[in-house]
Amino acid sequence: MRMAAAMAAIFLLGSVSAVAGVFSDYSGRQLYERFCASCHGPAGFGDGAVAPSLKVMVPDLTRIYRRSGGAFPEERVRRIIDGRQAYPAHGTRLMPVWGQAFPVEEGGSAEAQVESEQLVGRLVEYLRSIQQ
Q1: Is 123 within 8 Å of 31 (Cβ atoms)?
Q2: 12-27 residue pLDDT tens
């Protein structure tokens, strides 16, 4: 059992840069449309196609600034996107609903880590831009 888990971890870490590379040219808006809009909706209002089937209310991402007392909580948003701050609806840190697109796992290549941080940064900036 341990051997299978170790092999799975090696496979996932080895494939991280290849998966992240697929999205390296995506803008923040394109990343949002690809990974977030199905639940949070095309404009971020929490009204995505999947939202009615979930057991939790999907947050309106255009109101992050307001819910945070008038400041955009960039680091908290980063942690939610990359899985360091867990939300049950997103899945586990190792396998969020968007798979390995935004990995922050230790032991991965430095190149994959930098690319992941850049993707997350683009998505964070897009979310900042849609605040009302």
Answers
A1: yes
A2: 334 444 455 688 899 9
**Taking the CB of residue 20, how many other CB atoms lie within 10 A of it?**
23
Q: How far apart are CA 104 and CA 130, in angstroms?
A: 25
Residue closest to 20 by CA, chosen among 94, 99, 84? 99
Rounded to whole angstroms, the Cα distance separating 83 from 56 reads: 18
Residue 83: both structure tokens together: 């899985």
**Where along the chain do its domains lie?**
2-129
Q: How far apart are CA 35 and CA 30, in angstroms?
A: 9
Tokens of 103: 């990995």
- Give Cα separations from 98 to 23, 51, 65, 69 (angstroms): 12, 15, 24, 29
Q: Which two tokens stand for residue 91?
A: 């899945």
pLDDT single digits (tens) 87-131: 777 776 655 666 666 766 656 677 878 888 899 999 999 999 999
Residue 6 or 84, more confident: 84
The DSSP secondary-structure symbol of 59 reads P
